[in-house]
Design goal:
Blueprint (H helix, E strand, L loop, with lengths): L1 H26 L3 H9 L3 H33 L1 H21 L3 H13 L3 H12 L5 H27 L5 H20 L19 H8 L3 H17 L1 H14 L3 H52 L3 H13 L1 H12 L7 H31 L10 H21 L18
Helix pairs in contact: 1-6, 1-7, 1-8, 2-3, 3-4, 3-5, 3-15, 4-5, 4-6, 4-8, 6-7, 6-15, 7-12, 7-14, 9-15, 10-14, 10-15, 10-16, 11-15, 12-13, 12-14, 12-16, 15-16
Length: 418
């Protein structure tokens, strides 16, 4: 009976993440044009504005993810997840209505404060998964994101032909519908016996860091996650701009390419992780994923025709092996009542990486495509991301080569539960 309940809960959270991903993917093909329409600037200048929109969102995520993660350890995953979905839905509607760039920034600030959908969902998965099943189940969350990415950008590309604001209204309606659906169906995954008191000293990025430093493997892998996250932001922050600049793609073509990304991501996360990780282990899966990421990023930069991009999207999708494997290694190091704090800490890492990544990548793209650039190189941001991913691969090797990553390690000087 317990297995059936957990299976239903996992199925629902999978559907919820897929719907949420669809909403996010809908707006990607039209975001550059919306900024151009609002500001009247060139595409190159709009890239810079788009980067700053991502930065303010990430700054709020950095500070508030530990708060929400600790709240979910105290009150459960369900209320935090539903609140996040509600605010995201309202934010999409606000962005669709926004008459000025300032309103776009307001929307990003508010949504960044509640950006806990994926971190809370991952804590939910950690709650209901056995340690040796976590990599596969985290991979399934990635598959849900991939399915959403198949449908979202394709829908966004089609709606974008009828106006740049239509996809935002559609995304808002979908997110709000998802919130209502979750209110009636979503169960709670964190047992009351595994909850702990909320403490403001821990509910901030620095307090969370001090807690997680006691878990040697977790702390060591935080740097790997940071470098990987910074590099990964080259895709959401510059993909649309890059393909327009270099290949002259339309919103429909951008949507089609992102849909292909989603298909490959779903295959990797939903199937290959469950096959590869049990056979080669979490450590080798992480090595393989990051290596494929380096190949893909350099390939994007070197592509001379639009069709070549699709060749490198295949190894690009395989880098998903690393994310699930590393996350599983980290989750298996901490007790049940710290899973929310861990995911909140990862949210803070994602937040600070999201501040640095989009800013660096969009500025790099803008510099090397501006009329006054001394050296025209639209793929410069992807080359930089490739270097950072290679650095993450080296750091991963250094951190886990002597670590027992397949067993549940306890922190130095800390009990199992608190």
């Amino acid at each position: 009976m317990r297995w059936m309940k957990q299976n239903r809960a996992f199925t629902f959270i999978f559907i919820t993440m897929a719907i949420d991903s669809i909403g996010w993917g809908i707006i990607l093909p039209v975001m550059p044009q919306l900024i151009v329409d609002i500001t009247g600037d060139t595409l190159s200048s709009a890239t810079v504005a788009g980067g700053w929109l991502l930065v303010v969102y990430a700054a709020m995520q950095f500070f508030f993810s530990p708060v929400l993660g600790n709240l979910s350890d105290r009150f459960g995953r369900r209320p935090v997840l539903l609140l996040s979905l509600l605010i995201f839905g309202l934010n999409y509607l606000l962005m669709g209505w926004a008459p000025t760039l300032a309103w776009l920034f307001i929307g990003r600030i508010v949504s960044g404060m509640a950006a806990s959908t994926y971190s809370t969902a991952n804590a939910f998965v950690a709650d209901i998964s056995a340690p040796d099943e976590r990599a596969k189940n985290f991979g399934m969350m990635g598959a849900a994101f991939g399915i959403g990415f198949v449908l979202g950008p394709a829908i966004g590309g089609l709606l974008g032909e009828y106006g740049t604001r239509a996809p935002f209204y559609a995304a808002g309606a979908l997110a709000l519908a998802n919130c209502v659906f979750g209110y009636f169906v979503l169960p709670e995954s964190l047992d009351s016996r595994n909850r702990r008191a909320f403490d403001w000293r821990r509910a901030n990025p620095f307090g969370t860091a001090m807690q997680l430093v006691r878990y040697p493997v977790v702390w060591g892998l935080a740097g790997v996650v940071f470098l990987y996250q910074v590099a990964h932001h080259v895709l959401p922050s510059t993909w649309s701009f890059y393909t327009i600049e270099k290949f002259g793609w339309s919103p429909g073509q951008i949507g089609a390419s992102l849909a292909f990304v989603g298909i490959m991501m779903a295959v990797t996360q939903g199937y290959l992780i469950g096959v590869v990780v049990p056979r080669v282990g979490e450590r080798m899966s992480a090595y393989l994923g990051l290596s494929c990421g380096v190949v893909a990023l350099v390939g994007y930069a070197a592509s001379q025709s639009g069709w070549m991009i699709y060749l490198f999207l295949v190894p690009g999708a395989l880098q998903g092996l690393s994310g699930a494997a590393i996350q599983s290694i980290m989750a298996n190091q901490v007790p049940a009542n710290v899973q929310g704090e861990l995911q909140g800490g990862l949210g803070s890492i994602a937040g600070i990486a999201s501040i640095i990544g989009p800013l660096v990548m969009t500025q790099t793209f803008g510099h090397f495509t501006a009329p006054a650039t001394p050296f025209y190189l639209p793929g410069a941001a992807f080359l930089l991301a490739g270097v950072l991913t290679f650095a993450a691969l080296v750091m991963l090797y250094v951190q886990v080569r002597h670590a027992a990553v397949d067993t549940h390690l306890q922190p130095r000087g800390a009990p199992v539960s608190e």
